[in-house]
Each structure stands twice: as structure tokens, then as C-alpha cells.
Design a protein that fits this description.
Blueprint: H1 11-15, H2 33-50
Length: 66
């Protein structure tokens, strides 16, 4: 079994060159610090709950590790 070879990239590099749109119903929503903290906590919780050593991402998919 081969080891994991990380490809470190910043958030800027991950998002660079991509296009994102915000749905009409969300445009008036303003993110506060607490909202950002909650998002990061949710992402980390999901990652740690779903991560299994030796698990690989499906073909054509990437895994982002925070």
C-alpha cells in the first residue's frame, strides 16, 4: 500500500481561476465572524467524522484537507 503524497495548496490557489455565483435569495445575507467560524467547524467536524485511514477519493474527485 502506498503512502499519501500531499499536494499543498493555499485556499487562494484552490479558488483561483474558478467562477462562483451567489443565488438571488442569498445576496442580502451578510456573513459575520461567527458564521465563518461555524462553517469552518462544520467542515472540520465532517472531515474528522468521515475520514478513514487508507480511504481514497473516487476517480475524478479531489479531497481538500483543512
Amino acid at each position: 500500500m502506498s503512502g499519501i503524497t500531499p499536494n499543498y495548496r493555499s485556499i487562494r490557489q484552490l479558488l483561483q481561476g474558478r467562477s462562483f455565483s451567489i443565488d438571488e435569495y442569498q445576496r442580502e445575507y451578510k456573513w459575520e465572524r461567527g458564521n465563518v467560524e461555524e462553517l469552518i467547524t462544520d467542515l472540520l467536524t465532517t472531515f474528522f467524522n468521515d475520514y478513514r485511514e487508507g480511504h481514497t477519493a473516487p476517480a475524478g474527485k479531489s479531497r481538500v484537507v483543512v
